[in-house]
Amino acid sequence: MANQNIEQNTDHSEVELQAMNVKKPSPWKDFYKRLKRNKAALIGFYTIVFLSIVSIVGPFLLSMDPSDVDVINKFSRPSAEHWFGTDHMGRDIFTRIVYGMKYTLGVGFGSVFLGAIMGVPLGIVAGYYGGRIDSFIMRLIDILLAFPGILLALAIVSILGGSLVNVTIAVAIYAIPGFARIVRGSTLAAKKLEYVDAIRALGSSDLRIIFKHILPNVSSPVIVNATLYIASAILTAAGLSFLGMGAQPPMPEWGAMLNDGRDYIFDAGYIAFFPGMAIVIVVLAFNIFGDGLRDALDPKLKN
Amino acid sequence: MSTNESILEVTDLRTSFFTEGGEVKAVDGVTFDVPAGKTLGIVGESGSGKSITAMSILQLISHPGKIKGGEIKFRGKNLLDLSEKEMRKIRGNQISMIFQEPMTSLNPTYTVGQQIRESYKIHQGLGKKEGSKRAIEMLKLVGIPSPEKRLDQYPFELSGGMRQRVMIAMALACKPDLLIADEPTTALDVTIQAQILELIKELQDELGMSVVMITHDLGVVAETCDYVAVMYCGKVVEYADVRTLFKNPRHPYTVGLLKSLPRSDRDQEELTPIKGTVPSPDEMPVGCRFAPRCPFATNLCHEKLPSLDDVGDGEQIRCWIYTDEWNGDPGVKVYEPERTTEG
């Protein structure tokens, strides 16, 4: 009797059922489809992919070494032999830019990754537990935020010593507040959702709720913030190297190369122009990709 | 109270919220029993504290709310004495809860299967394979066609009624002894409402569990409950078995509720709403909470809070009219609602 009733109850949903059997696109395909609608973001995405490949494969394809000094050919203008010309020591600028790519991307990804690893848990804990824990964590974050970014990075690098690794750490520390605040906000919203109550009513522990049910819901703002932050991390790192606080010579870091070209900017502008252009392109690529990503990951803008 | 053995005995439960404006007593000395295998309905207006009562039983009250006192005895054990860890073992395993909004009570980022398996993972440590097998059984039990396919679907692919069935499957996965249903049908349309209520009833018989049905809908109470606790402003004002309550409501608030409900079994000229509104927490009357809206209220009602007293036949009422101290109209003591609606 009981079963009969249940069957009767659900008869109507057969139609619904058939409608649902239409094949659904995989999340990745769906995401790519939405990203594709934003042409600029797509260009940014492919630029990043292309540059990443170049940074890995490029050094193996080039005949010259970034530190090869060719005094006779110093200050040569861009030519078939030296595509971007040579600098004041006769080093091939194109080769140096290709070699320098991995440092730039490395600092960008590395610092954002480190920043996220530290900032996301802080934000989640603050948002989830609230109260005094929240106040304590957020005041610490406020202290970090009180320093202008480059100044904080400068201070950290001057304490730790000038090297690319220390620049990465410095930029990562500056990235913490951004991640913590974004994640805290999303966690505050996510923990009010009824399904978090429902899952607690099923006997889930706090840790399980945080990692399984809240983290996935805060992941998209984190990804978008990370992408956009990579751009500013690259800029900050290049700036520190330009000031001589980051990469040390003869490392082909773009910011340091920019600094090398500074003295010859009127006579041999290409020495500074090409590394500068490289920075602009990478930063622009990450920025427009990040913007597109935000739109693509926003469920409200779906369709 | 009842002659049956009780699975849940709530005594003088008090839950408050500590806001900037001061303490708000959301649940203020609530007492009721849930007889084993039966359904207790908790009825009341919005803000009467019925949902908070439910959340308090599972201790799901979060900051700034706090359970201030009382006793929640589940199978003779006071739940308020348990640690959070012990409490987690009870949630979803021995006492489960289903929520009002099937649209938001499921995590949109996980499939139906993953969410039902969660119960088995938490309480029985089952892996994916065994968990899926049980999940399919549960989906079948709650009347979802082709459950194997449903397992890999996301909540957004299901209709409201289907989602509520999935919620029920999740809640009942570990065969709990007590199910708390917090307005399980409010968000559903009428035909689906009837189906879900029927389903809960069937599963109750099949699994032999007790149910606490929280609702503001007296129709739902009449259909599903064995006993009813009527709540007003954080207090139980009347507790009775469902027949007695509908046939012979005694508390003026209950009478008012019933008079504002269209009924098919009686001739009714028009509906009579209860005058006034629920008092806000910061201007709660010192006497009977219902006194400002009660047509029979006397000075006594305004000055002193009546207690919840047994009036025989397992019925309890919180009203001065049914006490010896009553000094108002002696006629209302034998108050017959039928007579007034006809006259």
UniProtKB/TrEMBL annotation, chain B:
GO terms for cellular component: plasma membrane. Keywords: ATP-binding, Cell membrane, Membrane, Nucleotide-binding, Transport. It comes from the Bacteria. GO terms for biological process: peptide transport. GO terms for molecular function: ATP binding; ATP hydrolysis activity. Residues 8-258 form the ABC transporter domain. Belongs to the ABC transporter superfamily. This is ABC transporter ATP-binding protein.
